Amino acid sequence: MTSPQMHEEAVEAAREILRRRMELLRFTTAGSVDDGKSTLIGRLLIDSKAVFEDQLQHVKQVTERSGREGVDLALITDGLRAEREQGITIDVAYRYFSTPKRSFIIADTPGHVQYTRNMVTGASTANAAVILVDARNGLVTQSLRHAFISNLLGIPHLIVAINKMDLVDYSEDVFEQIRGQFREWAAKLDAHDIQYIPISALHGDMVVERGENMPWYQGYTLLGLLENLEISADRNLQDFRFPVQLVCRPQTEELHDFRGYQGRVESGSVSIGDEVVALPSGLRSKVAQIVTFTGDLDQAVSGQSVTITLEDDIDISRGDMIVRPGNMPRVDNEFEAAICWMSDEPMQARKKYLIKHSTRTVRGFIKQLRYGIDVDSLHRDEEATELNLNEIGRCILKVQKPIFCDFYAHNRVGGAFIIIDELTNLTVGAGMVWRPLREPPDPAEG
Predict the structure, then answer these.
(1) How many other C-beta atoms can be found within 10 angstroms of the C-beta atom of residue 48?
(2) Residues 285, 433: one domain?
(3) 371: buried, middle or exposed (CB in 10 Å: 19+, 13-18, 0-12)?
(4) CB neighbourhood size of 114 (10 A)
């Protein structure tokens, strides 16, 4: 190999490292209570040198005051007093760290069944889910529930981390048995990337460092796998969706004619001069300007918050959506969805709720519960008449005004919504659009 070729390869390798470092991966931990999720995150943070010395010293002092020895790794993420007293995670704890290859945001979600709704919140934006399984107990209902919800939420990558291998003598047979059981159960899921890793979060084996206790496992460590997950293809860069959050009309002499539509590009991209359609009116125009606080842009992509101006003065309000004419969402007021119920009060068919989809909030009701889903067997319970706290089912919803939605499996942002109780203003359910009952009308036809 010539010297110039070696130089080009080195430059390309450096660019790849920089690209991955700039690429943010969000992942969530999930599983049953006491499976070691908070301990695992504490191990990740300490061994990747993401914990300051004074923070570590404080955790050591709290551990000593509780009459224990060493460092209770779970205290690094269990920040609420109630969590420390009970030894469980209640709220979702977010932690940030980075390595030379990539930056990460971790959502440490509760394992107790009582707080499954908090787990849904933490997992809703994740690229990957680390499902922890206690090697002593094998698969339990809450582990399967969290794995099912992670798959239902469209998380592209599932990592089954079989933890506490130190308590089963680092047995390869135990690991293979649990992996086989999970594979058999997961065959009923629409999951395309499931990987399995044996770990000991307490002692650090196969978390950041390989350790010496499991030479029979030759795959990535957990951190190595997270660093090398390919997530660039997970983002929807095709369907341009721009829900309008605010119409900007500055009351100044210099900008008295300015009319901009503010929001975040939820998926896809848009450039100056692109033809767009405003929903629900169906009126068309072209993008005249893309404005940000740091200056004008030629193009805006998924995740960017911008102000868009159009060449024509058309009626657009908060809750409307700007899209491309050749790539329209479904516009419908009756659709099917998977719903995870998050309220102590059971779901009531025909009761009026608020349905919040993106920036649009409309009144509606659950027309029919088609079936509930048993997370243990993934069996459809067609005799179910209601959904209780943390239960999941497939429903038909009807809303007063159309919403502009995508299939959740194709566009996570465009297919997600929440259900709000009108009287209490509490979020009582989270939903994912599966398929509308009929083909959507063309807004341009009125």
Answers:
(1) 15
(2) no
(3) middle
(4) 13
| Same domain, residue pair 71 and 184 | yes
Q: Is 280 exposed, middle or buried (0-12, 13-18, 19+ CB in 10 A)?
A: middle
Nearest to 393 by CA among 152, 112, 144, 192: 152
Last residue of a domain, one of 301, 323, 345: 323
Single-letter amino acid, residue 431 = G
> Strand ranges (DSSP E) for 298-391?
299-301, 305-310, 321-323, 330-341, 352-357, 360-374, 379-381
Token output for 219: 């795959």
> d(Cα 163, Cα 144) in Å, to the nearest integer?
15
- In the numeric block, which tokens belong to residue 237? 């860069």
Nearest-CA neighbor of 338 among 435, 440, 410, 236? 435
Asked if 277 and 389 sit in the same domain, the reply is: no
pLDDT at 186 over 60: yes
pLDDT at res. 284: 96
CA–CA separation, 343 and 251 (whole Å): 43
- Between the alpha carbon of residue 399 and those of residues 241, 331, 334, the distances in Å are 21, 11, 6
Instruction: Identify whether the C-beta of residue 148 lies closer than 8 Å to the C-beta of residue 187.
Output: no
pTM of structure: 0.75
Contacts of 276 (CB under 8 A, 6+ apart): 240, 270, 284, 285, 286, 287, 310, 322, 323, 324, 325
In tens, the pLDDT along 149-162 reads: 888 888 889 999 99
Amino acid at 289: Q
Express each pLDDT in 241-295 by its tens digit: 999 999 988 766 666 678 899 999 999 999 999 999 999 999 999 999 999 988 8
Q: Are residues 200 and 85 in the same domain?
A: yes
Inter-CA distances, 315 with 74, 89, 274, 321, 373, Å:
53, 47, 18, 12, 43
Total count of domains within the chain = 3
What is the distance between the alpha carbons of residues 219 and 224, in angstroms, rounded to a whole number? 9
